[in-house]
Amino acid sequence: DVATIEQLAKNCPPGIGELMVHPGYVHDLTSADTRLLQARAAEMEVLCDPRARAALSAANIRLARYGETGG
């Protein structure tokens, strides 16, 4: 939820960190496509919430795909 993202942003140490999420729009998916159907929609909603975006921005945290980290 948004409160969790806000807490993580406040307590995130400097450097590269990982928060693994699989956000997504689920209008084209069924439970046969992924076991994370409800989680994908919920994660998308939270990560797009202006309060979560503001908390991440205030902590100078940028969301990125894993491949962008050089990992």
Structural features, described:
This protein is mainly alpha-helical and 71 residues long. It has helices spanning 2-11, 37-48, 50-58. The radius of gyration is 13 Å and the shape is globular. The model has no long low-confidence stretch (mean pLDDT 88).
Question: What are its keywords?
Answer:
71 residues, mainly alpha, 0% strand
Q: Short description, anyone?
A:
By secondary structure, the chain is mainly alpha-helical. 44% of the residues lie in helices and 0% in strands.
Mean pLDDT: 88
Low-confidence stretches: none
Structural class: mainly alpha
* Beta strand count: 0
Shape: globular
**Element string (H = helix, E = strand):** HHH
Helix content: 40-55%
Q: N- to C-terminal separation?
A: 26 Å
The main pleated sheet reads as: none
Rg calculated over all Cα atoms: 13 Å
In percent, how much strand structure appears in the residues? Answer: under 5%
Q: What is the number of helices?
A: 3
Question: What secondary-structure arrangement, pairings included, does this model have?
Answer:
Blueprint: H1 2-11, H2 37-48, H3 50-58
Helix pairs in contact: 1-3
